[in-house]
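Justification of computing resources. Each target in the renewal requires a structure prediction run like the one illustrated here; the chain below, 328 residues long, is used simply to show the kind of job we budget for.
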Amino acid sequence: MYDVFGLGNALVDIEVNVSDEFLHSNQIAKGHMTLVDSQRMHCLVESLGDEPVNRCSGGSAANTIYAAQGFGRQTAYVCKVADDTAGKFFLNTMLQAGIATNSSAVSNQGSSGQCLIMITEDAERTMNTDLGVSSALSPQDVNFDELKSSRYFYVEGYLSSSPVSTQAAIQCCQVAQAHGVKVAVSLSDPSMVEFFRQPLQDILGDGVEQLYCNEEEALAWANTDRLDVAIAELKDISPEVYITLGKAGSIAVTKNGTQEAKGLAAKAVDTTGAGDIYAGACLAARCQDATPLEAARFANFSAAHLVTLYGARLASLADYQTLLKRYT
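Resulting structure tokens:
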């Protein structure tokens, strides 16, 4: 039924340019994602004053699924939003793109999740996230019959921060693998590896078919400063590992060895969503029977284009098709 069936947080991104001093004065860890409560989020937004902001639908796995849909795949996304303006905005964005969502996506309690994305002059993005009702995403929200008939199941490591969402991810992984659906997991952020390692390990279980991470996450997982050591450890988790290296490109690790996909020259203005579109492009390519190295090259191309723009997604679904035609 679907090429890629996704599970993840539903967030509305608030993007704003800030200085390093703003991060320092507000005690925000640069370059990382930090979970905050609604009160902290309100205070941060207030402290921005009159700085212009851009609001758009976001969430790591949601961005990946949106990219896979844009590159021509049929997708579904299971999530949780509140019955508020932000929640309606998020769902409408997904549905207008042709992405199927779960019938239980809307909750009558709480507020929808938000992510404050602070972009500094060096194009680095720093995120503070209030999950809202997204943290209540549970196994009951999943249509397992649809999952069973999909080609890939994709889940973000961010779900490891919520016990109930972790259980949803674990159950989806188990059902998917029992029915021949390939499981792909993203480690998502170094903070997930550092603070939620055990639930992340529970999601990974006895191994998955694909694993996505950046270099920092890989090194953190293996508790090493040597990438070759990290690769050796990650190979025990998955037979197909993709490690992004920023402007240097990425590495595709398979049973046939480690292959480097070189990066492309790009004038980065915002790195938000680079890893997300990388995973979406890679999944779309693999659905078309591209080799892991070919998929990594297309994913590099897609990410290199995205970082030249502001935001975690391309401006429209048609832009993904335009990008695909440029590549081919």
